[in-house]
Amino acid sequence: MPSSKINDITVFLLTLLLFSCGKNNRSSSVTEKENSISKKDYIAFLISTDTLPLVAKINTITSEDRILSRSKDSVAIAMHYFFQAKLNYWDNNFQNASILLDSMKVGHQSGDLYFLKKWASLEQQTRGSNVVDAAVMRKIQELLQKAENASSRITYLFYDLTAKSFYQNKNEKAAAIYVDKYYHAHPYKQHPVVKRRYYDMIFLLASRLDDYEKMAKYNKLAKQLALASNDNLALARTYDNEAQIYARMGFYDESLKMSRAVVSILEKNNDIHDVAYNNLAKSFINIGQLDSAVYYYKKAIAMNKKNMSDKPRYLLYKGLSEAYVLQRDYRKAYETLDMASQLEVKTIKEIEAANIAEIEEKYEAEKKDRNILTLKSKNQHSEDIIRQQKYMLFSGLALAAGLLALIYNVYQQKSLKQKNKLLHSDNSRLKLEHKLLQTQLNPHFVFNSIANLQGLIATGDSTESVRYLSSFSQLLRDILEQSRMDFIDLNEEIISLENYIHLQQMRYPNLFGYRIDIDEQLDTEEVFIPPMLLQPFVENAIEHGFRNIAYKGELIIRVELEENEIIITIDDNGSGLTHQKTSSQKKKSLAQDILRERLQLLYRLNNQQARFELIEKKAFGKQGICIKINLPIIKNI
Amino acid sequence: MIKVYVLEDEKIILRHLLQILNEMPDIKVLGYTEGIAKAKVEIPLLKPDVILADIRLKDGNSFQLFDEIGTENFQIVFLTAYDQYAIEALNLGALGYLLKPVNKESLHDMLDKCRQHRGQMTMDPERVTLAKDHYLSPETPLNRRIALKSQEYIEIVSMDDILYCKSDKSYTSFFLTDKREVLVSKGLKLYENMLARCGFLRCHQSYLVNFLYVKKYYREGFLEMTNKEMIPVSIRKKEEVLLYLENLA
Lengths: 637, 249
Hints:
The complex is a heterodimer.
Chain A: H1 2-24, H2 27-35, H3 42-48, H4 54-68, H5 74-90, H6 94-102, H7 112-125, H8 134-149, H9 155-168, H10 172-185, H11 192-208, H12 212-229, H13 232-249, H14 252-268, H15 274-287, H16 290-307, H17 313-326, H18 330-438, H19 443-458, H20 462-482, E1 488-489, H21 490-507, E2 512-518, E3 528-529, H22 535-546, E4 553-562, E5 565-572, H23 582-604, E6 611-616, E7 625-632
Parallel strand pairs in A: 2-4
Antiparallel strand pairs in A: 1-3, 4-5, 5-7, 6-7
Chain B: E1 2-7, H1 11-23, E2 27-33, H2 36-46, E3 50-54, E4 56-57, E5 60-61, H3 62-69, E6 75-80, H4 84-92, E7 97-99, H5 104-116, H6 125-136, E8 145-149, E9 154-158, E10 162-168, E11 171-176, E12 181-184, H7 188-195, E13 200-204, E14 207-210, E15 214-218, E16 222-225, E17 230-232, H8 238-248
Parallel strand pairs in B: 1-2, 1-3, 3-6, 6-7
Antiparallel strand pairs in B: 4-5, 8-9, 10-11, 10-14, 11-12, 13-14, 15-16, 16-17
Helix pairs in contact in B: 2-3, 3-6, 4-6
């Protein structure tokens, strides 16, 4: 069969071309091959399919796509979508085609894949024969520009598309320009299939413009091509075209000749169709051979009925009716015309229905698009809301965190302040405590002294009373004054102490004697000690040490300077600890605790240390107690 | 005629005391001493009606003396200058005392009282023991017994038997668990000092409560006792009460 032979040839050519493409096509494909050996140049493949008639093209693409679909390569996947879209398009499955095309991922915006996708999308938008929108036209022009700038391999497809759009919009001249551009840009312009398509297109445009000369010229080129390729069907078409040209120019005899040639070639090739008979019949009418015309019209109608041809049958009936009219067989003419009109109405109805369907489809598609658009905008909106909420949440969290930090800070500052306050109060409490500790003239002693004074006065011993009173008041004054101070000079302390001792000696006459020895190196007015430091020890010695002894007590107080310390000893020969009772012992140890605390408090402020110890002289075979106090020297206060 | 014996170790004060006593009619000083050693011998021999006793003496304290010779045959008036523990101890035993320097009139009144109660008012030895124990070891908790001296009698009660004390001018009413009330002619302040260490709290100007019997604290300022009695809590004491309750919790 000739058609299958053609297929075989083109497939062979195609493979050849594919190889040559791989070899001499631009460097990009070479580098691509280097990158991945298995990678195929699908664009080149697609372009090469242009050399095939449509059916062969579909078959080739289908089989290639089958192989392709198993590939994991991103380009292959994109091409798979493209081929599927295209196949669906050819199958009139426009919706699928559109969806598949949408799924095609193209990478960067200047690659062939990108242009391919855009082209296919625009092709879908310009399908049918309707007028192309200005917006779509603009888009096509835009992409054409881009493809030209990127010198894309598929720029010629955009020329083709532009030409087609102009053609649909009845701008034949512009269409002709782009057809030329298309042809010259086509990589396979030397291929007969491509060439023939080009000639056909030019012929069609010329025919629209009634440019007989051009029509004849391109028909001649097509005829040469058909003859060269031994393609009888193509040749028949050129004869048919020639017949049309002659008929339109009024050369009916030549027209009839051509029509006859067409029919004979087609009948020979078993490829005869109603249109050829119809054209022949018309040619017979043109020269007045009405019987032949009727004969061929009838043949055309029979053929049309048999093959369910595209050609509207009513036109054939109309032609037949015209032939009957010319034969003056009006009855038949009427009957035929009636048939024709019935058929026409039917056809028109069909066309209308188709149109309505198409419009409806378009409407639905638009509605869908609008829905998608609103959904998209809704989606965008909710995304915005979510983003806003996220932002709000985040800022809320940040704010909360900030607030917490602030509160924490304030709280900490407050607690620090409070701590500080506490420390402050602690400090002042300690100071106060110290004051309390040091104002320790035993009330028992005070009231006893007063009682003694009372006794002295009551018994009329006025000299002694006056002496006692002055000593007592001096002691009270000193102690009151000193109690306000942390340190007093040694001299003051000694004076107070002597006052105290005098009072005790008056209370207990002849109970004890005393002596105070002070280191000559010491300037008693330059050395400072805590007030009332020695008095409690002296009191203890008298009240507990001397009170119940059979001999005269002896109290010796020594103040010595040794390195950086003042050493004070309070030495008695009293009864010592053993003779003392539990209660007073406890009180005494309490007094010592208080003193220890007091010394710590006082000297800690100066980072110094004071200490004292109680020595029982019994351990050395003697009577009494010796207190030894070590004080750091404080010279200025 | 009241026979008096004096224990005082400070010569000037002793001299003064003897002088006052000798000026008083109806009083005879049988003897005096500076220490307990001599007193131990002389008191049983001289049999005085009243003993004037300084607590701190040359060779010990007078509680020790009474521990040894007993308190059945005489009345005691203690003398002290100023000794916190001694005064507490004396109050605990509801023992009579005078503060030095001695006021002549106070001494006179005290001896008058002794004269009125001569013979009938023998001293419960437990009261001296109470005082002695507290005096000798003031820091250890009280032995939870206290002597309450009312107009008519002196009663030793366990502190656990006191619900609360209420002040009434210079008197204090003790409300006991057996629903009796004992009126004592001493101020609440005195008992507060003693009982604060024994689970009592001054929750109000006029009230000293035993926390053993506090059942509830109402924030508007009341303590409900176990016998359903309500004791007011003064605003200034609220915090203290709360602190006390927190320490219990």
